[in-house]
Amino acid sequence: MRHDLNQYLDEVAGRLERFPKGVVICWADDTQLGDANFEHWATCASPTRKRPVYVIAISRALLRAPKYVLRWLVLHECGHVRLPAWQKGGGGCHHYYFRQFERAHPDYIRANKWLEKAAQVA
């Protein structure tokens, strides 16, 4: 199964208000994600002076994941771009407003169950 992460990103970004233009998405090795035990399936890095774009990196361990899992994961990471932790009164990177945002996705429960099961196998 071949996934087009850019297509998933375009689909999600097209539905979000005021979504920034500078977002790049790519596959990454788990060492690049900074977590070898698969607790993190993806990451979102904020722009810096040297790299003026957001970078969403998805673990290569998910290359064979179902489409609904990757689409939800892209939405989850786009949530970090759209709803940063410092916004809406803090509460960490997965604050109340963030959880409301991601739970609006129709495959939220199914995708999370699939990722939990995959983490047990890894």
What form results from the Cα inertia axes? globular
> What's the level 1 CATH class?
Alpha Beta
Identify low-pLDDT runs: none
- The total of helices stands at 5
Q: Termini, distance in Å?
A: 19 Å
Tally of discrete structural domains: 1
CATH superfamily assignment?
Metalloproteases ("zincins"), catalytic domain
Summarize this structure briefly.
This protein has 122 residues and is an alpha+beta fold. It is 43% helix and 13% strand.
Task: Name some characteristics of this structure.
single chain; 122 residues; alpha+beta; 3-stranded mixed β-sheet; 5 helices
Chain-wise SSE layout:
Layout (H helix, E strand, L loop, with lengths): L4 H11 L7 E6 L1 H4 L8 E4 L8 E6 L7 H16 L13 H8 L4 H14 L1
Parallel strand pairs: 1-3
Antiparallel strand pairs: 2-3
Descriptive overview:
The protein has a single domain (5-121), classed as Zincin-like. The chain is built from 5 helices and 3 strands. It has helices at 5-15, 30-33, 67-82, 96-103, 108-121; strands at residues 23-28, 42-45, 54-59. The protein has a 3-stranded mixed sheet with strand order 1-3-2. Helix 1 packs across helix 3. The relative contact order is 0.17.
